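Worked problem 6 (solution included).
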Amino acid sequence: MPMATDDFFRARLDTMIDLRHPLAVLATRMPWAQIEAALAPAFAHRDRAGRLVEGADLFGATVQLAGAGVSNAGRPRLPLRLMVSLLYLKHAFNLSDEELVARWSENVVWQFFSGMTYYEPRPPCDATQLGRFRRVLGEAGVEQLLKSTIEAAVEMSAVKKTEFERVIVDTTVQEKAAAHPT
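Solution. The predicted structure is:
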């Protein structure tokens, strides 16, 4: 089996950062393979039924099936780990999609968290791709991410299971059914 060689002219991210940084620790302990396996079906290429197209040739009217099957056309998808980690960073630091991709290219710890091996000076994707990723991910995918995050936190003893027995919700901004005297 051939041994992977490092890029001789670039420094690895794991040699550039403090591996005790909370995001670096989280990056090594998150169940990335399980998260990717759970989300992969939502992003798989789907088989399309196609449509019948009427046409004419030398022998008269014809009907052909167009657009059927699985298409491999288009740009390859970005890695799921990268997109999932961008969602985590977006919500952890309360950033817009545009701010996130701009800051990601400057932050080596964020790049390490995203699974990159070497520093990348370019943004990871266009900001609009994050919105499309969230739309395809859907509510079920977000719930899967939350579940994986909670399981990882319990596994690394960052939180105890007993902390999830009671939930406190702040409703100060929520509309109330109280009527004020007029």
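Discussion: Residues 13-41+79-158 form one domain.
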